[in-house]
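[agent] plan:
  1. take the single chain provided in the ticket
  2. run structure prediction with default settings
  3. attach structure tokens to the ticket
  4. add a short note for the reviewer (M.T.)
[agent] executing step 1
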Amino acid sequence: MLSAAIGSLALAILAIAGNKSLAIKNTLNFYKPTGPLSGVTTVAIFVWLLTWLILDRRWGKRSVTMRRINTVSIGLLVLSILLTFPPVVDRL
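[agent] step 2 finished; step 3 output follows
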């Protein structure tokens, strides 16, 4: 759940960065018909998978406290939703 939340936050941050910066927008344009959204989603999926791999390596054989992880995950998911909500993004 934590890796998905981090990937969601990466998606929101990249979407904002792509809208605010022409250089980032051009860098994230992996497929011209789709525009920068193709790069935003591709990089966010890469962040999610990389985070998942790192967390699996670190926590694979350990017992972790899920209450704290779930709390952080929900916080990150709420933040990522807020960062994709136009009235919030327009204030940034």
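[agent] step 4 note for reviewer: The chain has a mean pLDDT of 93.
[agent] ticket updated
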